[in-house]
Structure formats: structure tokens, C-alpha cells
Amino acid sequence: MDAGLTQLAKTIDGDAALSRALKSPLYKSEEKAAVLAQIGDKIGLPDLAKRFVGVAALNRRAGDIPGMARAFAEKAAKHRGSSRVLARVAKPITKEQTLDLESAVSKSLGRTVSVEVEVDPALIGGLQLKIGSKLVDASIRTKLNNLTNIMKGA
After folding, report:
1. DSSP class of 124
2. Are β-strands 83-89 and 134-139 bridged in parallel, bridged antiparallel, or unpaired?
3. Residues 59, 4, 96: CA angle, nearest 5 degrees
4. What is the pTM of this model?
5. CATH 3.40.50 fits 83-153, yes or no
6. How high is the pLDDT of residue 154?
């Protein structure tokens, strides 16, 4: 179920117009629920997840669904004994690279992790790993900002 909700969250976050419409008070809750039901059918959302999304939409929480999905996925991973790690990269990476990253982070932390990849072109290169409340930043953007700050102080 968490994989389906995560896919729904990515779909909503990937479409700015849809995200705005779900947050907008101009559309009725029933309309939002109907749209989310159609999206759920297209992506193969499990029945329980569809009902959850429908109830959230009818209770005027359609705009909060991506956050709810991420929170649920995190709780489900913790329940399975796994941790979720968010990896921000400048360009999309392959499934094989994602698995290699999961393996390396799992080995480093000494526990099983699942990596969710998010593309952020503003990083220029490198990556950022968010592990719980900790952020490991190895992006070129941060390195350039640090170098700029050092040069301003000189």
C-alpha cells in the first residue's frame, strides 16, 4: 500500500496544476475525490489506499495527501525494520544506481534502508542524503556557496 501511495504522491507533486487544484478551495471536495479516484485507477492504487485517499479528499485534505503518503511510507518502513532515506540528485539516476546507493547506505548505517530519489537540478551535481533528521550534503551547489562565503571573508 505504501508503494501505491508514494506513486500517487509523486504523481501529484510532478504536476503543478494538479497540486494547485487539490489545494484550492475553488473546487468541491467531491470533484477532488473523483479526480483522485481516476488517478488511483490509472496507477493501480490498492483498494484500501483508494478509500483512504477518497476519505481524505472528502474531508478537505486532498492537498495534504502527498505529505500523508510520505509519512505513511516512513512508518511502514520503520515497522518493517527498514529506514527510508531521501536522496536528492541533480539528474535522474537509473534503477541500478538507486540499488547501488541503497546497498552503500545500508552497509554504512548497518541497517536496511530504502532510498527515495528526488531530482533537484539546482544542486548542479553531487547529491544530498536525508537520513531521518540528518542531512549529508555533497552537492556542488553547497560547495560553491561555501567557496563564495570563504572568498567574501578574505
Report:
1. -
2. unpaired
3. 145
4. 0.67
5. no
6. 65
